[in-house]
Write a structure and sequence with these properties.
Length: 292
């Protein structure tokens, strides 16, 4: 059995047998998909935006009819006008660039460390014995609880903010990638040993495809964790960013500016999650699931 055949087995989940050397019939797969009656049905184009649009419609109608008091929650048209003013004087885009940079650096650092730890713990019992315990301890301690300690270590500058975000990111990446590694069918490892696949080829052809669903799920949680940590660190001795703008607005009772900041955070989260879901859909297109 050849290495490409092993990859095919890892992708389609077929049991090891001589029949797996035959080419996979796409017609048979498509027939199963067409005949599926118990799934969630066909996807809704732009469905990810349906919920936010309905929420926005409720906000608009509630403000227009007086159901929502503008002293409690600014009207959408007021928020739009405020956003336009903030954009005109440069405050909004400056804060957005600062926030995206912080979140991106923390996310990249946390993902990198989380993947390395997951590989070390997932491919080695010794690595798991050393790494898994401390990560589980970190999992039980919210990253936000470590902020006082991080301030003492790194001060109140950008370094502390990036490390706080990274600590919130690495745990979901580690947990889901490690779980994806450990749930790879052991028969693939036996097959790889039988046909003489080396360690690097085994990781590239079996481990990476097998762990990819777990990693991408962890990435979705990681993006959310990064934004949650960003909201907090930008309200602690920050002098720039969307969080700083919100904190400053709360001191002056500017509800409309606060709503603008929250809408920006919401858009960032929605866009980031949409990008990850798109990547997952393309990277895992070989899977036949209810999502496909």
């Amino acid at each position: 059995m050849t290495a490409p055949t092993l990859v095919k087995l890892a992708r389609y989940g077929a049991p090891p047998s001589a029949e797996t050397d035959a080419p996979v019939s796409e017609d048979l797969v498509d027939d199963r998909v067409r005949l599926r009656r118990l799934g969630p049905g066909d996807g809704v184009r732009g469905g990810i935006l349906l919920g936010p649009v309905l929420l926005l419609a409720f906000w608009f109608i509630g403000s227009a009819t007086g159901f929502i008091d503008e002293r409690t929650l600014s009207a959408p048209w007021t928020v739009v006008e405020t956003a336009r003013d903030l954009w005109a004087d440069g405050r909004l885009q400056d804060g957005l660039v600062t926030s995206v940079t912080r979140a991106g650096l923390g996310l990249a650092l946390g993902v990198g460390v989380g993947v390395v730890l997951a590989l070390l713990a997932g491919l080695s019992r010794s690595g798991e014995a050393v790494i898994d315990g401390p990560v589980q301890v970190k999992r039980s301690i919210p990253s936000l609880a470590l902020i006082p300690l991080l301030i003492l270590w790194f001060g109140i500058g950008e370094e502390m903010k990036v490390y706080t975000i990274a600590l919130g990111v690495l745990v979901p990446i580690y947990i889901h990638t490690h779980n994806g590694l450990r749930t790879i069918d052991s028969r693939y490892a036996e097959l790889a040993e039988t046909i003489g696949v080396g360690r690097i080829a085994f990781v590239r052809q079996v481990v990476v495809p097998g762990a990819m669903p777990g990693f991408l799920l962890g990435l979705r949680f990681a993006v959310t964790s990064a934004l949650l940590a960003l909201v907090v660190v930008e309200q602690i001795n920050a002098t720039s960013g969307i969080g700083y703008m919100i904190t400053l607005a709360s001191s002056y009772g500017q509800t409309d500016v606060i709503i603008v900041g929250l809408v920006v955070y919401a858009i960032l989260g929605l866009v980031a999650d949409g990008v990850v879901r798109l990547i997952a859909r393309r990277a895992l297109s070989w899977r036949r699931t209810l999502e496909s």
